[in-house]
């Protein structure tokens, strides 16, 4: 962890990552509810919303689209990922080197998934080491997608599991840890306390009602979390800018959920 | 993906790859229906047809024959491949480095097979990363042979599977993705949409009637695909130039299948 | 082994390492008995006690907190470690390179765990080789956490096992070997004799009564050991400085356990 | 494949490799029928016969003896090999680097075994790639010992199998492929046709009658093969020079088998 | 193999290696019969005996003690080794690089164990390759501990097995091969003949009567062997110099066993 208050990936110390690595992780089926979301251009447009501090995409999408958006979007290059056609132990291919992300893609941060608890934990941690140390050479903040899995993980959203996942972010040198929501603000307080200065992002998960969604985000912020990484719950919507308006209120403006819902309501 | 409109591997944005890596992948048995096809010189001669934008061969064949054809043929160095004597999980040996392809063979593009869904997916994706990043240093377009396989793949020509395979081409940074034909123009439209700016080639498969074959190629073009990669269906013929004449009409001249068949008919 | 009498990691040839790698090895549950121990700042403060010659932490914690303590604390970068979510054969991920520890973290010593007897012994020894040789380039003392495990190890605190573990420290080139307490001063004499000039540290283990704890430390010193590496038994206390006062007496001042207990008693 | 007409490993475009890697592959038992064959000096002497274009030995034998023979013998450094004490899947250790062969041993060609069809095919092909590309840097011809093995290979001397093995020599960039004898001149014609410009050597195999042996060599030459790689069938003889005289007639002088037998008969 | 007649590891072309890697291979239990043997200083003192041409120790012991003995002892750095706590397939960790042995330890020769016939044979041979080639750069003689093991090895002291082990020393480029005693001078003659110019050392094994021990050494010398590598049979004795006196007679002075026993008898 290093001070990243001034890094483009933050706004007033808070973070909203728009995640769009679903084309590799899940495939086209994720775009079905909102077909235009299959088009990266559509999602890059969404990412120009001021609430979004960073857009997380893989190498190929960045290579093809970021040149047209580099003034308006901050790129978080997601370095590893694997298709869901693969039925083996959880693992993740390193699809982009830090050098390539920094020098060729123009990334302003890098992201890397680790699965503490899986058979390949040792290998994933060691890959993370190389990424983290190389990213420091380029002064790129490092975001760890930290998802505990494997035999020993009975409840992957339990407070203890999430707190451990976030702590590993701190221990291994991540600037930001993206973890699942542990169910309550109180649990999230434990999580952010364990992460120390490593910023904690709630992973957006699937679509719920707007109120429920914003309340969970609000509880993250109130628990000392830095914000949210969200994908489908934004770009599977017909009007993604409205929910981003609401998230902007909650994350950066200390607004209540009601105020945020008002701000994002369709103007008459 | 990067703009490759001017690359030798394309003609008016379209692509016809003549594939001739069967000597490694299948062995001499593939040459039986047309014995002279065992002779690479014969196939290099076929590849001088203007419809062919690129000839895909392995290192050894390129090394031995390309020096005599470099003015008339554009070389796509196929970098990996494995014999079919091997009974293990699908995998593919990297038989040629990008450096060697670029500096010693004079390749103008490189090709690499990945099998999303197999046990070695992670390793194949990581090998692809190295190839892709090194190819960028040499400004060589990268063609991904993308064939989903493994336990989770129930139907390897289903629209969803092919669309995922093509999307992985985009996500991982391929300029061109070679995929199986998903059965209809409508399905192919989904596939090309998922691939975004990554050009999509239909993989030629086995011999069918000329009409059926040209109709499937036509449907690829009409669906926004870039063209075709074809092997046996060309060089196992007695007169491969005729079918190339027909393909030229369909791929580059927006001709109908009937017009193409006429163009390729033996002149009286 | 090389002369390290003048290295910051020692004081009068003795050593007291405060170990704080529990966030990775065990997770937040270790901080429950003393919640403020979850905060690395709290433990760095404890480590400013003059009895502590070195604070052992992982990369991320060092990166975030050591800049504020580098005048008052000597950093021992613990280079490998693994979560206890992982159920496989004992192994340990290399989470920090020696180069990074030396150049970026400002470490004054490095620590590395090996598990002689496990399936991965060969690999761990080879990783240790690389660490040891690289550390020599930076003149950093090398501390080996040496814990025999695996099928052949029936009693992991038996004299023979611990003596072997310590001897491996000497054989493989560690300056300091951290081993379990073999149960008696006599056994510890064998252990230190087998280690030759490699300094031997008793691993602190879990909380016992202060008298029992100090007596075991005293017996290590009397047996020719260099001191102690201790974690929870210090920072899980309400007043860790008192036990450090007592340890200071025993380790550096040749005090008796009674004298040490007096010195550390609350002043009226 | 590259033009090697002028390489020391050939004579008039033909090749006779004397193979002497039996000390590693089979051990001393192979020397029993002719005890002096255990002495490399004896075999180097045999290799000075003008019929022999190259002597294939491993690193250690080359290092010890080649300095005394470099004016009279052309060295083919056999780079990989494994003892027959090993009961696992066919594989072969790389015992000599190309750099060492070229710079320290003074080799004029390198040899490498691959076993298409075995579990380690992918790894062996990749090792071959590195060898082949490095050998090109030193302008050293590459000889592939190509022996199909594994579950799918029912008949390892069948025409189809041998033809595939030879074709892989061409596909992977070998200048010369050493394969088993497929049983007839007709089958050998298929084999050499599939190998294109890659020269094909028949692997000598065990002792037969001189007439049978020379007839098979003659059929290789008549089928367009380049010659022979032979070991025991030469140096297990009491008078190896006589059979080399005969081979010289058959391989380089287009002699009939009868003429060759006459030429090699003991002079009265 | 290269001429090493002038190397410090030999005396008049003969070799007596004092081996002291037992601390890693067997652990402290080996020192029990003569407790002071646990102290490397004691063994370094023994190694100053003029009969000893080289002392074989691991990295850590060399690092700690060799600086005080470099004028009186010649260091053979034993580069690999593994604890006997490990129950897996025979294998050996590379604990010291050649570079480190040459540049930091001041070694005058390097030693490396291979186990022909084990599952890891291929890997061990390849590690040996790297060691051998790197050692050549530093002009360091290479000693191979060559012990055939594994399923196919029914009798690990049979003549055929030992002869194969010694031959592998020659084939792979070792200057000296350390093998088990094959039981008789006649068998040893086969062994040394198979090794060619690679010097053969008998591995000392366990304690026997002095006469029996010297007779076996004598038979090695008479069979053309270079000498002996011996450990416990020297340093587990109360007066190791006496047996070294006797060995000196047998190995370097062509003395009979009776003469040697006289020379080494306690002076009245």
UniProtKB/TrEMBL annotation, chains A, B, C, D, E:
Molecular function (GO) terms for this protein are:
fructose-bisphosphate aldolase activity
UniProt-listed InterPro entries: Aldolase_TIM, DeoC/FbaB/LacD_aldolase, DeoC/FbaB_aldolase, FbaB-like
Spell out the protein name for this chain.
fructose-bisphosphate aldolase
Q: What family does this chain come from, according to its entry? A: Belongs to the DeoC/FbaB aldolase family.
PANTHER family, per the entry: 3-HYDROXY-5-PHOSPHONOOXYPENTANE-2,4-DIONE THIOLASE, FRUCTOSE-BISPHOSPHATE ALDOLASE CLASS 1
Q: What is its EC number?
A: 4.1.2.13
Q: Where are the transmembrane segments?
A: none
SMART domains associated with the record: DeoC (SM01133)
Active-site positions, per UniProt? 147 (proton donor), 178 (schiff-base intermediate with dihydroxyacetone-p)
């Amino acid at each position: 962890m290093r001070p990243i208050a001034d890094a483009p990936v933050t706004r007033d110390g808070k973070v909203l990552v728009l995640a769009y690595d679903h084309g590799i992780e899940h495939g086209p089926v994720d775009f079905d509810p909102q077909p235009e979301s299959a088009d990266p251009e559509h999602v890059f447009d969404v990412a120009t919303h001021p609430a979004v501090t960073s857009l997380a995409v893989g190498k190929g999408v960045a290579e093809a689209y970021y040149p047209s958006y580099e003034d308006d979007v901050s790129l978080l290059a997601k370095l590893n990922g694997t298709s869901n056609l693969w039925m083996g132990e959880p693992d993740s291919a390193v699809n982009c080197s830090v050098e390539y992300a920094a020098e060729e893609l123009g990334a302003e941060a890098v992201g890397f998934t680790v699965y503490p608890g899986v058979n390949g934990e040792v290998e994933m941690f060691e890959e993370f080491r190389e990424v983290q140390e190389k990213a420091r050479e380029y002064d790129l903040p490092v975001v760890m997608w930290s998802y505990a899995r494997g035999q020993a993980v009975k409840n992957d959203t339990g407070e203890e599991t999430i707190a451990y996942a976030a702590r590993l972010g701190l221990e291994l040198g991540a600037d930001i840890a993206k973890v699942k929501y542990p169910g309550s603000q109180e649990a999230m307080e434990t999580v952010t306390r364990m992460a120390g200065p490593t910023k904690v992002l709630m992973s957006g998960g699937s679509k719920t009602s707007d109120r429920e969604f914003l309340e969970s985000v609000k509880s993250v912020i109130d628990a000392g979390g830095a914000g949210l990484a969200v994908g489908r719950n934004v770009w599977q919507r017909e009007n993604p800018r409205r929910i981003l308006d609401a998230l902007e209120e909650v994350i950066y403006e200390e607004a209540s959920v009601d105020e945020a819902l008002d701000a994002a309501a369709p103007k008459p």
